[in-house]
């Protein structure tokens, strides 16, 4: 089939490449000419394992193109148009900024002839009600399906080609719904043949499935972080607690890792967007729950800063003000919001680094992939890719993004490099016994 993918960020670039890999003829469209030309050269504009292989010239046998300036022919001849633009948190309040979605709709309105019936497939995460509005604007030129994407950064290619489920939010009209469903089934034929569940529903449910999934994951993380505070108060160990909880198959082991909390381009903005929808629709209980999930997440960052100040003040007797960090050499391991990603959006590691720098610490920040432009965007921090260099002379080390190379650090060697062997493990990713045996003062989260 002939497809376009409008918006080539983490979602769209991976989707375009994956669809070409499935054998479709794909045109990726991005308003940023630099991004479009980078992709057109077969290069990934961000770090995502597996993507370079799909983009490499020749990989898709000329079925994959990218442009910043699509022609009418490009758009009018395609069977299916995917909308994969960003829906960032709005500058006013917590709701989603839909300007990129409606710009994509305007682009289609400009080029699609009247009376045609191509399919427009929304993949972006949007507040409930958006699909209906997109369908209203495109009426007479295209049919609309909402097909949210659940990919994780770092695993985006795998998640796109082997999703847990495929969700279609279909139009109310049964004939339109049937035709739309058939078209999209053809696009995803290879995935459906593998037996991946495909669930059809109305627009509103499809929009809510996506925000509900992310809100549930965020709630799971905030729950275990709240339990981690309880474990600290009670002298219990949250890592052992989580392990025991996870054996209950109704709970499961995943997303029960206590630590500095969640960040990234999705979870934080999605819980805020769902909260804003809940407030505007009078669903107070959901709004209150999500506010609490957000507050617990923010409190974890504050808690780590307090632990750092406590060490600077020389003891666990409680923090007296926020003094003591001035001039202290602090090394933060991690800048990305999670390992295997170069994404720093709402990164807890970077947030804590900034707060410690504001308290007067001299902060070195180390990350294997996520330091591009940090010196400009965070002039108070000292970026360092080499972990041994970053550790040299540190008086306090914080592990905030659990990259494999940090988790595998040899504590004895690390102790030789630092000025004072004190580590706060903000992801509970290290073995406390091994680090203590090598002479470190080790503090985890809730253990
Ligand atoms: C998330 C969803 O998982 C994905 O389905 C959706 O499409 C987009 O949002 P992503 O943002 O890539 O994906 O990251 P994810 O792996 O979910 O992690 C989110 C954050 O939670 C990270 O900061 C991570 O460090 C943190 N996290 C995750 C925890 O703090 N504890 C955990 O147990 C799991």
TrEMBL record:
Its UniProt entry gives the catalysed reaction(s) as: UDP-alpha-D-glucose + 2 NAD(+) + H2O = UDP-alpha-D-glucuronate + 2 NADH + 3 H(+)
Keyword Oxidoreductase included in the entry's annotation: yes
Entry-linked SUPFAM superfamilies: 6-phosphogluconate dehydrogenase C-terminal domain-like, NAD(P)-binding Rossmann-fold domains, UDP-glucose/GDP-mannose dehydrogenase C-terminal domain
Residues at the catalytic site: 266 (nucleophile)
**What does the entry give for GO biological process?**
polysaccharide biosynthetic process; UDP-glucuronate biosynthetic process
Look at the named UniProt entry and state the broad enzyme category this protein falls under. oxidoreductase
Query: Do you know which InterPro entries this protein is assigned to?
Result: 6-PGluconate_DH-like_C_sf, NAD(P)-bd_dom_sf, UDP-Glc/GDP-Man, UDP-Glc/GDP-Man_DH_C, UDP-Glc/GDP-Man_DH_C_sf, UDP-Glc/GDP-Man_DH_dimer, UDP-Glc/GDP-Man_DH_N, UDPglc_DH_bac
Q: What GO molecular functions are on record for this protein? A: NAD binding; UDP-glucose 6-dehydrogenase activity
Q: Which residues bind NAD(+)?
A: 30, 35, 87, 125, 153, 269, 345
Q: Pathway it acts in?
A: Nucleotide-sugar biosynthesis; UDP-alpha-D-glucuronate biosynthesis; UDP-alpha-D-glucuronate from UDP-alpha-D-glucose: step 1/1
Residue ranges constituting the UDP-glucose/GDP-mannose dehydrogenase C-terminal domain according to the UniProt record: 331-432
Family, as annotated: Belongs to the UDP-glucose/GDP-mannose dehydrogenase family.
Which PANTHER family does the UniProt record give? UDP-GLUCOSE 6-DEHYDROGENASE TUAD
Q: What is this protein called?
A: UDP-glucose 6-dehydrogenase
Q: Which gene encodes it?
A: ywqF
């Amino acid at each position: 089939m002939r497809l376009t993918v409008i918006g080539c960020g983490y979602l769209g670039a991976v989707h375009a490449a994956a669809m070409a890999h499935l054998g479709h003829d794909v045109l990726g469209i991005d308003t940023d000419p630099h991004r479009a030309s980078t992709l057109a050269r077969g290069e990934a504009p961000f770090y995502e394992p597996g993507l370079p292989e799909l983009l490499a010239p020749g990989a898709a046998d000329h079925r994959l193109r990218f442009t910043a300036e699509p022609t009418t022919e490009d758009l009018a001849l395609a069977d299916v148009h995917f909308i994969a633009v960003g829906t960032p948190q709005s500058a006013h309040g917590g709701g989603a900024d839909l300007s990129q979605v409606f710009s994509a709709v305007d682009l289609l309105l400009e080029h699609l002839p009247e009376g045609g019936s191509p399919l427009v497939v929304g993949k972006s995460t949007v507040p409930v009600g958006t699909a209906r509005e997109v369908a209203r604007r495109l009426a007479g030129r295209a049919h609309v399906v909402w097909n949210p994407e659940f990919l994780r950064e770092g695993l985006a290619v795998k998640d796109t080609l082997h999703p847990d489920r495929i969700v279609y939010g279909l139009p109310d009209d049964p004939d339109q719904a049937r035709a739309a469903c058939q078209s999209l089934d053809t696009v995803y034929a290879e995935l459906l043949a593998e037996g991946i569940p495909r669930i059809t529903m109305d627009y509103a449910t499809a929009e809510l499935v996506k925000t509900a999934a992310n809100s549930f994951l965020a709630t799971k993380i905030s729950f275990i972080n709240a339990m981690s505070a309880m474990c600290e108060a009670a002298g219990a160990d949250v890592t052992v607690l989580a392990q025991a909880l996870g054996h209950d198959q109704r709970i499961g082991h995943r997303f029960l890792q206590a630590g500095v909390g969640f960040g990234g381009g999705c979870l934080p903005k999605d819980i805020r967007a769902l909260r804003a929808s809940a407030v505007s629709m009078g669903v107070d209980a959901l709004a209150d729950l999500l506010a609490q999930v957000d507050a617990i997440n923010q409190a974890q960052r504050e808690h780590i800063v307090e632990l750092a100040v406590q060490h600077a003040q020389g003891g666990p007797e409680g923090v007296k003000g926020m003094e003591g960090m001035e001039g202290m050499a602090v090394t933060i391991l991690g800048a990305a919001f999670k390992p295997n990603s170069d994404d720093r959006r709402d990164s807890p590691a970077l947030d804590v680094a900034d707060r410690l720098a504001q308290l007067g610490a001299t902060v070195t920040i180390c990350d294997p992939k996520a330091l591009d432009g940090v010196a400009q965007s965070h002039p108070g921090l000292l970026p360092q890719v080499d972990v041994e260099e970053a550790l040299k002379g540190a008086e306090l080390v914080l592990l905030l993004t659990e990259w494999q190379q940090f988790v595998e650090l040899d504590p004895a060697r690390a102790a030789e490099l630092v000025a004072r062997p004190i580590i706060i493990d903000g992801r509970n990713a290290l073995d406390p016994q091994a680090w203590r045996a090598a002479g470190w003062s080790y503090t985890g989260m809730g253990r």
